[in-house]
Amino acid sequence: MLTLSPAVRIYLATGSTDLRRSIDGLAALVRERLTLDPLSGHLFLFRNRRGDRLKVLAWDRSGFWILYKRLEQGTFAWPANDAAGSVEMRSTDLALLLAGIDIAQTRRRRWYERVA
Q1: Residue range 62-75: average pLDDT?
Q2: What confidence tier does 5 reach under pLDDT thresholds 50, 70, 90?
Q3: Mean pLDDT score of the chain, rounded to an integer?
Q4: Listed residue (8, 2, 107, 5) closest to 54, CA to CA
Q5: Nearest to 44 by CA among 71, 62, 67, 74
Q6: Which of 56, 67, 70, 96 is 20 to 30 A from 18, alpha carbon to alpha carbon?
Q7: Strand 10-13 relative to strand 53-59: parallel, antiparallel, unpaired?
C-alpha cells in the first residue's frame, strides 16, 4: 500500500495510453497531453487500452519511479477521454481504484476538508 503526503497530487490520464512507453515517453505525455510538470513530485497514472494494466510515474528528487500493475482478471475503472486530458484524484480514491472499486459508482458523503 502507498502512503502519500497530502501535498502530493494524483493525476489520472483519461483514455488509454500505450504502456510500451518508458519513463521518458510517459514524462513527455505528462508535459504535452496533461500540460503538467513531471518533475513536480506528483503521481501520474496511465492505463492501457484493454484496461488490465496500469503505470504510475513519480519523481522523488533524485530520479523517476515507475510502478506497474497487471491484473490477472478484470479491468481498472477509468474515465473516458475528455477535453482536459486528466482527472485529479485523492489518495483515498487511488486506494479504491487499486482495490478494484469503481469510484464513479460511489457517493462521497459531505465532509469538511480544508482546501490549500
Answers
A1: 94
A2: confident
A3: 87
A4: 2
A5: 67
A6: 96
A7: unpaired
In this prediction, residues 53-68 reach a mean pLDDT of 95
User: How is the chain split among helix, strand and coil, in percent rounded to 5?
Assistant: 20, 25, 55
Q: Examine residue 2 and state whether it is found in any structural domain, yes or no.
A: no
- Which three cell numbers mark 94? 487511488
What distance in Å separates the CA atoms of residue 14 and residue 3, rounded to the nearest whole number?
24
Q: What is the number of structural domains in the chain? A: 1
In a domain, 111, yes or no: no
State the residue range of the domain holding 49. Answer: 10-105
Distance from C-alpha of 24 to C-alpha of 77, rounded to nearest angstrom: 26
| Confidence grade of residue 49 (pLDDT, cut at 50, 70, 90) | very high
Nearest-angstrom CA–CA distance, 55 and 46: 5
The β-bridge partners of 46 are: 55
Q: Which residues contact 44 (CB under 8 A, 6 or more apart)?
A: 11, 13, 26, 30, 34, 36, 38, 56, 57, 58
Q: Which three cell numbers stand for residue 79?
A: 474515465
